[in-house]
Amino acid sequence: MENYEDELLKAIDQDVRSHSEIVTKRVNEETDSLMDDQISFYKEGLKKETDTYLESELNDLRLYAATEASRAKMDTKKKLLEMRTSLMEDLMHEVKTELRAFVKTPEYANYMKKHLDDLQVSADGYFEVRENDADLMKKILQEKGLKNEVHSVYFSIGGFRYVDEKAGMEYSCALDEKRKEQFAWFRNHSGFKLKEGNAE
Q1: Per DSSP, which regions of 40-186 are E strands?
Q2: CB of 194 closer than 8 Å to CB of 78
Q3: N or C end of the chain: smaller count of CB under 10 Å?
Q4: What are the pLDDT digits (tens) for 123-182?
Q5: Are 158 and 181 in a shared domain?
Q6: Is the separation of the CB atoms in 117 and 140 below 8 Å?
Q7: d(CA 175, CA 195)
Q8: Residue 199 gets which letter from DSSP?
């Protein structure tokens, strides 16, 4: 009887141990599975956060690079424009000096005659010249058989202006006006203009 009870207790103990091992194994498997799921979840979340952060940083870097490139380009354009302006001012001064020397040469009278030949002069018109050129203009008109009035006005360099108020006509070959017209044309057609955000 005693042996039977011992055997029964052993069988019960083995059965309990067996079920206990199965339960423990399943619990461990479930625990491992949950841990793996949690780790995967956190890894995925961390990856998304990292990707978002990196994309934001890259966008900031792209914006910074574009801004710096644009600023550098604009600075270069401004320096080129300043250089061109300085060169133009030097050139204008040089041309003005050469024109002042030109009006003291015999070729200046030929310049006046050439432009006079291009005109249809009427008796109602009159000429405007600088005071230093009044006698020269009268002489040229006399050579052409013209008796129009000659008025002395301020011209910074030379040349003449013909005015026919009755016909509503005005013609100028004033050297300083011609000089300014040429430089204005050059300034407008030199192919370099500066605009904020864009430069041509």
Answers
A1: 126-129, 149-152, 160-164, 169-172
A2: yes
A3: N
A4: 999 999 999 999 999 999 999 999 999 999 998 889 999 999 999 999 999 998 888 877
A5: yes
A6: no
A7: 33
A8: E
